[in-house]
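Shift notes (night). Ran 2-polyprenyl-6-methoxyphenol hydroxylase-like FAD-dependent oxidoreductase while the centrifuge was going.
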Amino acid sequence: MSHETPTRAVVLGGSLAGLFAARVLADAYDEVLVIDRDVLIGVDVPRRGCPQGRHINGLLTGGQRAIEELYPGITEEMLADGVPKGDLGGTVRWYMQGRQLEQQHADMLCIGPSRPKLELHVRERTQALSNVTFVERTDILGLETTADRSRVTGVRVQHLDSGEAEVVDGDVVVDATGRGSRTPVWLAELGYPQVPEERKKIGLGYVTQYYRLNSDPYHGDLSINVVAHPKLPRGCIFAKTDGGRIEMTTYGILGDHPPTDQAGLYAWIDSLGIPEYSDALRDAVPLTEPVAFRFPTTLRRRYEDMPRFPDGLLVTGDAVSCFNPVYAGGMTMAAKAALVMRSHLHTGAAPQPLEYFKDLARDVLDPHWEMTNVVDLSFPGVEGKRTLSVRMAQAFLKRVQIAATRDGKVTAAYMRAAGQVERPETLQRPGMLLRILVQSLRGPKSRPPHIVTRPVRPAAGQAAEQSAEPAA
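Came back to this:
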């Protein structure tokens, strides 16, 4: 009979990042506790602790594949629950630099769950693990450490309903509390160096509204996406989602934000110059009021550059990095971070935090951070160093987008990089590089506007006759 003490992992935050972390920790520890201020179990609506839950949370193909690896079969479960699907290159209609890209299937499955729907499925699969327990309605007060502060041994919490405070011991503590993470403050209080940070002011603001449409602007597509560019720093994602609804998130940067009054919002959509948007919304039925969200700065905490770090503590998700959300990388980053974490959870050995952070930076964060930084800095008002390499990358990206208006193979390759399935440098392979150069020299291709179709309604006399027919 074994007398070994059971091992415990403690996850701070029941966000998607926290759930993904709990999933991999459950394979390495006897017990996993997920602590959060919110009620989590059974919730299928936006949570107070997830303010972006009312907005589109795009799941890139790389993220979908990572989530499927963590929870085999979950994609089919969501599709069976009414979540629509498509191909990132073939059934997403992209407008970049004001021109539509040529569509081509890229073997890039993408699915369109709302954030609450995705959280519900992931939470239920995590909850089904016998050694995972959710500790709800509980505030996180701080870390517990050894006397020499070299190792984190648990966390101090307070239960909101009873007011009772206690120390929860853990062999490893994972911070998944999001952008507002207090780990940098806690580390400073413990005598550790300041966590290096990078911030870039982008002044992003967006507004979301849900609809039911009385027309069809999609014609088989999953989403119609307009990407902001320097000449028009406004964009929009107009996508099918679960429940037969349409989810629209429209945005602007550098303080140019969409309004939340209905008339003003429709006028803003008209300014994008996409006829299928304006025509589809002409007789759409709003299901919600317009809701705003502000995202002033991107943020990256470079834990990999810390000279020392306490054992027994890891950080994941938005608590490490918050990219510009219009690039839809947050959930993908969190899922991929869990896979990196899993590779550091060796049986019988505690993870080495700095090794984990270095692998996370190199394999997950760096490529997407560099790619999105190039795009952010293409807007003249965004502050930052426009080095020679950044300017060269911007010029190349513009050629890629021009070429993609003519060549579906370029679109497919571009989407494999943007969807975090392949690294951005794959676009510079000789054959693809030649294709991009040749096609971009021809200039962008123009297309006639898409037609929005509406169901044929019977004439008044026919409608009366039909209504008089007996029910079957």
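The radius of gyration is 24 Å. The chain has 13 helices and 19 strands.
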